């Protein structure tokens, strides 16, 4: 399956996605980056997949807490969630010039269904590109962490994917790293093993560099303890 891509949004908006295994700290780093952009004077919209819309909540319940399903069924449900999220949340935000930050996007499907579930990575990517009409982030931050450490950080009952086992999560991690190596112009790998402050500083530096942003010293880094 092939589909032409649109690596940059055709508007003044900024599209940033965060990827990584469970427990890598995506939620924390997204919140800090959103604060950083807000302090710089931007409107910021934060989303997540699956479940970033009302319809997506139903799909999220199916893929994360529903009955066992085939890898193809799982991939199709994620693509449906992404199609709706892109058309109703992401594109409208970009079209009005906002900063759109999403917790997971296309790369998650390629890593989890293409790597973890052993589906064809090309097929999974093509499905998501079709679903989103080729929309890709300007920059993707991959928070890389040993999956054993990451799962240990999850402070709640594990969902269907989180409890898939060590081999599954290691395959997913390697799929992520392979994808980052193949798309260095978009995907930045950030070591997520450091402190919250250290990781945030690396995220800000990566985003500013990739987007060629002129960052005032006053908003260079958000203090997580402030």
From TrEMBL:
- Every copy of the Thymidylate kinase-like domain together lies at 18-203
Q: Does the keyword Lyase apply?
A: no
Molecular function terms in GO for this entry?
A: ATP binding; dTMP kinase activity
Q: What is its EC number?
A: 2.7.4.9
Against CDD domains, the record matches this protein to: TMPK
Query: Where in the sequence is the signal peptide annotated?
Result: none
Report one GO cellular component: cytosol
Where along the sequence do coiled-coil regions lie? none
Q: Could you say which residues bind ATP here?
A: 20-27
A Pfam family found in this protein is Thymidylate_kin
Q: Which UniProt keywords apply?
A: ATP-binding, Kinase, Nucleotide biosynthesis, Nucleotide-binding, Transferase
Catalytic activity line of the entry: dTMP + ATP = dTDP + ADP
Annotated GO biological processes are: dTDP biosynthetic process; dTTP biosynthetic process; dUDP biosynthetic process
Kind of enzyme, top EC level? transferase
Family classification: Belongs to the thymidylate kinase family.
Please give the function described in this protein's UniProt entry: Phosphorylation of dTMP to form dTDP in both de novo and salvage pathways of dTTP synthesis.
Name it: Thymidylate kinase
High-level lineage: Bacteria, Bacillati, Actinomycetota, Actinomycetes, Micrococcales
């Amino acid at each position: 399956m092939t589909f032409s891509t649109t690596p940059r949004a055709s508007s003044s908006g900024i599209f940033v996605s965060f990827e990584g295994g469970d427990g890598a700290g995506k939620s924390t780093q997204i919140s800090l980056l959103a604060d950083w952009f807000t302090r710089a004077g931007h409107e910021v919209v934060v989303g997540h997949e699956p479940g970033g819309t009302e319809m997506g909540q139903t799909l999220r319940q199916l893929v994360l807490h529903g009955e066992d399903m085939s890898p193809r069924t799982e991939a199709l449900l994620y693509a449906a969630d992404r199609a709706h999220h892109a058309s109703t949340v992401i594109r409208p935000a970009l079209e009005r010039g906002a900063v759109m930050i999403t917790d997971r996007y296309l790369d998650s499907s390629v890593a989890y269904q293409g790597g973890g579930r052993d589906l064809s990575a090309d097929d999974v990517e093509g499905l998501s590109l079709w679903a989103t009409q080729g929309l890709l982030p300007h920059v993707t931050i991959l928070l890389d962490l040993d999956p054993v450490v990451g799962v240990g950080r999850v402070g709640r009952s594990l969902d269907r994917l989180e409890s898939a086992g060590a081999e599954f999560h290691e395959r997913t991690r390697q799929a992520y790293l392979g994808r980052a190596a193949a798309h260095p112009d978009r995907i930045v790998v950030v070591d997520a093993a450091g402190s919250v402050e250290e990781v945030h500083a690396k995220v800000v530096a990566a985003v500013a560099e990739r987007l060629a942003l002129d960052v005032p010293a006053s908003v260079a880094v958000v203090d997580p303890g402030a």
